Give the backbone structure.
Amino acid sequence: MNLKQILSGLQSVDQVGVEERIARLGKRSIKNQSKVDALKLALQMCDLTTLEARDTEGKVIQLCNKAMHPHESLNVPSVAAVCVYPNMVAVAKKSLAGSKVKVAAVATAFPSGMSTLKFKLDETKYAVNEGADEIDMVISRGKFLAGDYNYVFDEIAAVKNACGDAHLKVILETGEISTLDNVRKASHIAMYAGADFIKTSTGKVQPAATLPVTCVMLEAIRDFYFQENKMIGMKPAGGIATAKLALQYLVLLRETLGTLWLTPNWFRFGASSLANDLLMQISKQETGNYQSSDYFSKD
């Protein structure tokens, strides 16, 4: 089956149905020990990220320390990964040595993707050679919106090949491709091209991650799994700042894909600010008291 056949077989997204399903999530509640377990799972699924022009080695080292030891007194797991620019991969790799925390690197002219394929492949190979376990690439949204789907597919496939053993997360930048139909279409292009994960956003464009968009992407993963018998991971990124919202994402994940995906191997949150709220909520559940946000590092 070629790409044209794959895309022509996609049905239009029922936007009203998606919105009604998301509205019901706000009425769910998780209580007692189940809530503590869910909060700790969400923390374990976080990718702590620093992607600023003012990043320094010291800032990356601090973030890595927080990734391995999110809180000195609470019994909480380490997070899934630390995500940095390619030139900071070696620093992160050294800082995380001996831990289970992965090093992820953005590549392919993040966040715009506006560069040549050669540059994108060279940057990907550089990050992998520096020690990156995961590569977060951005698709060429201009090509996608122009309908040049074969270009987008071939570019993803080429980057996947350049990743070697590193896992590839493909960022759709859903705030720019706009419609839910486009989100479904881009999800299928990325998965058939070789993505290990599909990811909503760079965090640099608004809107970033939303529950409706994530619902459509999870359903695309489900359909792909039934068609190809292959699991694909999911990463909503940007705009997820509260534990309450994170738990809604986990409920949506479980109801759409089942318990097999309830692991950092298959689901991540790209939201550094989320980690602190999760820690505050875990502390509240375990001690009965809220801690001030001043007790948690911002990085």
